[in-house]
Amino acid sequence: MDNYDWIKKILQKIKERKPLIHHITNYVAMNDSANVTLAIGALPIMALEEVELDDITNMASAVLLNIGTLKQDEINHMLLAGKYANFKNIPLILDPVGAGASKFRTRTAKNLLKTLKISIIKGNSFEISTLIDLPAEGIGVDAISSNKNYANIAKEAAKKYKSIVLVTGEKDFVSDGERVFEIEGGSFLMSKVTGCGCMLGSIVACFAAIERENLLIASLGASIFFKSVGKLAEQRSTLPGSFRNSLIDSAYLISNDEEKLNAIWREKNDPVC
Ligand SMILES: Nc1ncnc2c1ncn2[C@@H]1O[C@H](COP(=O)(O)OP(=O)(O)O)[C@@H](O)[C@H]1O
Ligand SMILES: Cc1ncsc1CCOP(=O)(O)O
C-alpha cells in the first residue's frame, strides 16, 4: 500500500458508480465545473428550475450550492434543493463565493448555513473568515493572502457550523473542528485562472458522493487530488489559457492512471498534511 491508495480507491469508485452531481452554480465557472466532473468519471447536472428540483435531487448523489453569480430569486431554489438533499441524506456542499464582498452574499451564505444542514463548506480565506465574523482580506471573489492562521480559521468555522471546512489558497486547510490538515502543492497558475475554486467544489462533491460516511476524508482527498492536478497541469502548460484546459486534461489523466498520483508528489517532493 502506498500513500495515496485511499485516494485512488475513491477515484476508482467514482468511475464505477458515476455519481450524478447536482450543481446550482455560477455561470462564470459552470462549464469548467461540468467538465472537471466528467473528467474524473462522475456526471454533472446544472439545474435551477424549481419544478424539476425534486426529480433532479432524487437522482443525485450530492448537491453543490455555489453563490458566485447569485440572484435574489435563486436563493429559494438553493433552499429547496438543499432541503431535498437533507431529506434524502446526501452530501450538501456550500461554496460561499464572494462572501465578504457584499452584504447580500454574506447574508445569504449565513442564511443557507442556518437553514440547511451543510456537510462541507469550501471557500477561500476571505470567504471563510467572513463566515466566522473575522476581519477578512479580499477583493471581489478573491482572497488576498496574508500571514493569518488559516488552520485556526478552518477549525473555528468547522466548529461554528458543525461542518467539514476546506479553506483554499497556496496551502489548503481541512478541518472537522478538532483536527486540521494542511495540504501543500498545486500551482501558482491556479490563482491566475478563474473558476479553480469552483472546480474544486465539484471535485469535493464527487468525493463526498462516494465517502458519504467520512466527509473529512472526502474533503482531504479532493484537496490533495486537485493540488496534484494543478501540478501536472503546470508541467504540461505554463500560460493561463492553456493551463485552464490542462487542468481538465490532468484531472482525467490522474484519475485514469494509477501511478500518476504518486509520481506527481515524488517528483517535487512536497510534504503533504
Ligand atoms: N498560489 C497557489 N499555489 C498553489 N495552489 C493554489 C494557489 N492559489 C490557489 N490554489 C489552488 O487553487 C484552488 C482554488 O483556490 P483559491 O484560488 O483559493 O479559490 P477561489 O478560486 O475560490 O478563490 C485550490 O485547489 C487551491 O489549493
Ligand atoms: C469571477 C467570478 N465572479 C462571480 S463568480 C466568479 C468565478 C469565481 O470562481 P472561483 O471562486 O472559483 O475563482
Automatic annotation (TrEMBL):
GO terms for biological process: thiamine biosynthetic process; thiamine diphosphate biosynthetic process. The keyword Metal-binding applies. ATP binds at K122, T168. CDD domains: THZ_kinase. Substrate binds at M46, G195. This is Hydroxyethylthiazole kinase. Pfam families: HK (PF02110). One of its GO terms (molecular function) is ATP binding. It comes from Thermodesulfobium acidiphilum.
